[in-house]
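Person: I keep going back and forth on a fold encoding question. Show me how you would write down a chain together with its backbone fold. Please set it down just below, with no commentary around it:
Helper:
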Amino acid sequence: MKKYILTLFVLFNIVTSCDNTETELAGPTYDRSTLLKNWYNQHINIGLSGFKNKVEMVREMIDLLENEKTIPSLIKLRDEHLKGWKAWQKIEMFNIGKAEEIYFRSKMNVYPVSTARVESNVSTGSYDLSNANNFAAQGFPTLDYLLNGIGSTDEEILEKYTNDNKYLDYLKAITDEMLSSSEKVINDWETYKNEFIISTDNNATSAVNLMVNDFIYYYEKGFRANKFGIPGGVFSSLPLPENVEDYFGKANSQELALEAFDAIEAFYEGKNLETGTAYTGASLKSIVSDLDDKEGDNNLGNKISEKLKKAREKILTLDQNFVDQIQSDNNKFLRTYDAIQEVVVLLKVDMLQLLSINVDYVDADGD
C-alpha cells in the first residue's frame, strides 16, 4: 500500500512539473541567436525608427495645413501620408510584445474605413481611440478618407478644413495616437531586445517560433487576404472593391502592396529592410535551405523564393489602382491571389514541418 501511495506521489510530481514547464519541442538545430539578432538589427529596429520618423512628418504637415489652408499644403500632407503608409507596410508583420498588447496593427491599418464612425467622431468631438470600435476610424486608412474622401475635389476637401476646425482636430488626434503608439512599441523594444535575442528555445513562446508564426500569419491574412482575397471576392459571393487599401486615394494600392511584398521578401531572403542588401549570417531562407537535403530547384528554400518571385510578377501586371483592376478585370486580380496563395502552403506546411514549429493561430478564412 505504501509503495502504491509513493508511486502516485511521484507521478503527481512529474505531472505537476510538466504543467509548470513549457514543453521543449524536438527538432533540428540551427543558429537561432544569429537569426534573432539579424531580425532585430536588420528589420525591426530599422523599420520602427523609420516609421516613427515618417509619422512625425505627417504631423508636421498637419500643422502646416492648419497654418496655411491651401491646396499645396494639402498635397504635401498627402505625400507624407503615403510615405508613412509605405513605411508601415515594412513593419506590420512584427506583431509581437508591446505591439500585440496595444493592438498596434489594428490602430494603424484597419480597412475599409468606417466613414460613419469617423463622421460621428468628428461631429461630436467625443471619442476613445483605444476602444476597439474605433479601430476602423483611425490610422492610415482614416487619414486616406480625411485627405481624399470628404469631398469630390481638392477645393471641396480644403473647404472642410477652412470652415470647420473639427476635421483638423480629428486629423491631429489620430496622428497623435499613431505617434504615441509608435513610441510605446519602440520603447518596449529597447528593454525587450536582449530577452528577444537570447530566446533560443524551441517552444510555443520562444522568439523564433513567435516571429515565424507572425510572419506567416501576416503573409496569409494581412497580405494575401486583406489586400487581395477580400476585395477580389475570394471569401464572398461578389468582389468588394470598396475593401481595397487606399480606396479614397485610389492610385496607390499596387504601390502599397509592392512595398509590403518587399518587406516579406527581405525577411525571408535575409536582406536589410532599408537597403535591400543581403546580410551575413542566418536568415530564414538560409536555414530552410540548409535543413532540406534536396538540391537545386527541389530545395524548399529555393522553391519558396521562386514562388515569391512569380507572385511579385503577377502583382506587377495589375493596375496601380486595385479598384479599377477589380472592376475591369477581376479574373486577373484573382490569378494574382492564386500565385500569392501558392506560397502559403510552402510556408505554413512544408517550412514549419522542416523547422519543427507548430502553427499558433487559427486561419480565419477557412481555407
About this structure: The chain has 14 helices and no strands. The two ends are 55 Å apart (CA to CA).
